[in-house]
Amino acid sequence: SKSDMSRLRLAAGSAIMKLAQEPCYHEIITPEQFQLCALVINDECYQVRQIFAQKLHKALVKLLLPLEYMAIFALCAKDPVKERRAHARQCLLKNISIRREYIKQNPMANEKLLSLLPEYVVPYMIHLLAHDPDFTKPQDVDQLRDVKE
């Protein structure tokens, strides 16, 4: 059934996120697997989108996930539910402030700046948006407007 498929996608996305929290496994997650994991945040099932976003936020706030996972929140720009879009924005802002605060509190983290500075998430956001199956026509003004919002 459709709900079973959604639950399976949630389980798969959550498993990839769990693996990504271990540096030895993070290295072997392919861009395609990362992309499929990210797309769970746009699942057709509202509960799946919500649970996945909560798990993602929880792991990012604890600095357990690599920086590129922050980019997944960019895919929420087209969520049909306004509250979900607002929640994703809040999660993104909170993660940015946590990472900036961590850098201030830990001057020795300078050698890890590439993995901490929120600005470095932009290329990953571009990658996810460029490979989003819902945005197929780059000339479609309505689609571009959706991304902008």
From TrEMBL:
<dbReference type="Pfam" id="PF20168">
    <property type="entry name" value="PDS5"/>
</dbReference>
<dbReference type="GO" id="GO:0006281">
    <property type="term" value="P:DNA repair"/>
</dbReference>
<keyword id="KW-0677">Repeat</keyword>
<dbReference type="GO" id="GO:0007064">
    <property type="term" value="P:mitotic sister chromatid cohesion"/>
</dbReference>
<dbReference type="GO" id="GO:0005634">
    <property type="term" value="C:nucleus"/>
</dbReference>
<protein>
    <submittedName>
        <fullName>PDS5A protein</fullName>
    </submittedName>
</protein>
<keyword id="KW-0539">Nucleus</keyword>
<dbReference type="GO" id="GO:0000785">
    <property type="term" value="C:chromatin"/>
</dbReference>
<dbReference type="InterPro" id="IPR039776">
    <property type="entry name" value="Pds5"/>
</dbReference>
